[in-house]
From TrEMBL:
It holds the Pfam family Na_Ca_ex. InterPro entries: Alkaline_pH_Ca-Antiporter (IPR052946), NaCa_Exmemb (IPR004837). It is found in: Membrane. The chain crosses the membrane at residues 26-44, 50-70, 82-106, 118-139, 151-171, 183-202, 242-263, 275-298, 310-335, 347-365, 372-387. The keyword Transmembrane helix applies. Its main location: membrane. This is Ca2+:H+ antiporter. Residues 50-204, 245-387 form the Sodium/calcium exchanger membrane region domain. It comes from the Bacteria.
């Protein structure tokens, strides 16, 4: 064999090795969660210099990408709908911690921070994640299909949760202003837990098949179920790798929220200097925290698994309300000051329009790119009116 042949063979081996998944300790998806977590701890008490803030911003993006990778590994191991449920709950639990942390620090928007962040999460998931997933999936595959029964029950749960926790306080008379009275807040918290727990049981036990990816014909009509555990014919990762990814997923999400917390004073200063309302801070934080779910949803939509994208969108909205409100209700025992959950008129109108459009989108069980575009326009309206109310 000549030198050229040997060189070509060596090159092909290098390319093959570089294109195969690396499972060693120096893989970037293993290193990034650890490095970003250490950076978060190291800069927790000192992060005023612009170079440090720039490093935090870069680390935040890297942590988001690592979280998406590990979430997909775990999802591939456990299958749907457990994978999307794990990511939604993990992100929301840490989001709740961030909300409580910022509320305890005091400040101008403490009384409305929980409401602003949760409502932003609802609009981002129902219009941003849902709209982008439908747009990407439909542009690539002409039509996208999903199970209207499972997705419809998820949407109904989100609508009920949002109405009970953020619309009713606008009209009740027992509390002051836009607040619930203590007994009303306790009822809303219990109702939120019951609804969320009931949906999780429905999604994972009673009617799991309603939340699995579906196959369809050329007209988008559902013809059956896809093998949700068959990720492009790749074998599921071993249990040890899935457990490692689960731990690194949690570490990545902690880093995402912690780094977002470190950047929040800079965001607050920027919002104030631009003359924007304080509620914009909650919108920015929600965008950062929901980035892993957004990327994962779009990637699944591109692979024609829009059902998983919808599971992520509605599951995230549901968990954001169903876990946040009970936690805030308990934390309000120790937190000083009012807790305003009632939505102002503009946000109530946006929520009402979003509900109507989402119902029209879901009831068909299939969607074109136009539906995705409509949801994205609603998200743009929400973002614009948050800046210019």
């Amino acid at each position: 064999m000549g030198l050229a042949s040997l060189t070509g063979l060596a090159f092909r081996r290098v390319v093959t090795m570089s294109s195969s998944p690396v499972r060693g300790p120096f893989q970037w998806t293993v290193a990034v969660p650890v490095v970003t977590f250490v950076l978060m701890l190291g800069t927790w008490t000192w992060h005023e210099h612009w170079l440090v803030l720039a490093a935090i911003g870069v680390a935040l993006v890297a942590a988001v990408l690592a979280a998406v990778h590990h979430a997909e590994v775990v999802a591939h191991r456990v299958g749907e709908p457990y994978g999307s449920l794990i990511l939604a709950v993990a992100v929301t639990v840490i989001e709740v911690g961030l909300i409580v942390m910022l509320m305890t620090s005091g400040g101008e928007g403490t009384s409305t921070y929980a409401r602003d962040t949760v409502f932003a999460a609802i609009m981002i998931t129902l219009n941003g994640i849902l709209g982008l997933s439908l747009l990407v999936g439909a542009l690539k595959h002409h039509l996208v299909s999903f199970n209207a029964s499972g997705t419809g029950s998820a949407l109904a749960t989100v609508i009920t949760l949002a109405s009970v926790t953020m619309v009713l306080p606008r009209f009740t008379t027992s509390g002051d202003g836009l607040e619930f009275s203590p007994s009303q807040l306790a009822f809303a918290a219990v109702a939120s837990l019951v609804l969320y727990g009931g949906f999780v049981f429905t999604q994972t036990v009673q009617h799991r098949d309603f939340f699995l990816p579906v196959s369809s014909d050329e007209y988008g009509r559902v013809t059956g179920l896809l093998d949700a555990d068959d990720d492009d014919h790749a074998d599921p990762p071993p249990a040890s790798e899935a457990m490692l990814s689960l731990g690194l997923l949690v570490l990545s999400l902690v880093a995402v929220v912690g780094l977002a917390k470190l950047l929040s004073p800079t965001i607050e200063d920027g919002v104030k200097s631009l003359g924007f309302p304080y509620g914009v801070v909650g919108v920015v934080i929600a965008l950062l925290v929901l980035a892993p779910e957004s990327i994962a949803a779009v990637r699944n939509a591109a692979r024609d698994r829009v059902q998983i994208s919808l599971n992520l969108a509605f599951g995230s909205a549901m968990a954001s309300i169903g876990l946040t409100i009970p936690t805030i209700a308990i934390a309000s025992i120790w937190l000083d000051g009012p807790l305003e959950l009632g939505l102002p008129p503009t946000q109530m109108v946006l929520l009402a329009i979003t509900v109507v459009v989402s119902v029209l989108t879901v009831v068909q069980g299939r969607a074109k790119a136009q539906q995705g575009l409509i949801h994205l326009v609603l998200l743009a309206a929400f973002l614009f009116l948050s800046v210019k109310p």
